[in-house]
Amino acid sequence: MDRRDHTYGGAKEDFDLFSPYLADGAIVAFHDTLHEFEGPIRVYVENILRSNHFGAAAFFHTIAWAQYRPTDGARFRAAREQLARSAAKLIPFVAEGRPVKGLRKMRFKLRRALVPHTVLSPAEWNAKIVPQLR
Q: What band does 125 get if pLDDT is binned at 50, 70 and 90?
């Protein structure tokens, strides 16, 4: 397992090997999800955002995160699906490790700008995550 492997196979293997050890309330984060790599964005969309085992989820710059909530993650489904619809539109640009350049790169950057990725203040983080841990 190479932690620098941004392919779909590498990111999926990392997630599959790590996920059995998640504790309820844990935060999972993927680096480089909004860069030109297939692995992080595809695993995040397919295995996190489309799974009822996760609750709150968002992007922080290029880092995607989600809270592991195996018992009540379904109640966050609508918010996760909304984020998934936006983020999934990046996958065709990076599928199969194709280089993103020229006009495709410009389209990718435009599509990426439409994915919500705001910075949460400490107060917003506490309001969103901390009460859910109790």
A: confident
Tokens of 114: 């439409």
CB 58 within 8 A of CB 49: no
* Residues near 88 by beta carbon (within 8 Å), at least 6 away in sequence: 45
H or E element: which one contains 59? Answer: strand 54-60
| H or E element, residue 9 | helix 8-18
pTM as predicted: 0.89
pLDDT-based confidence at residue 5 (cuts at 50, 70, 90): confident
Is residue 70 packed enough to be buried (19+ CB in 10 Å), middle (13-18) or exposed (0-12)? Answer: middle
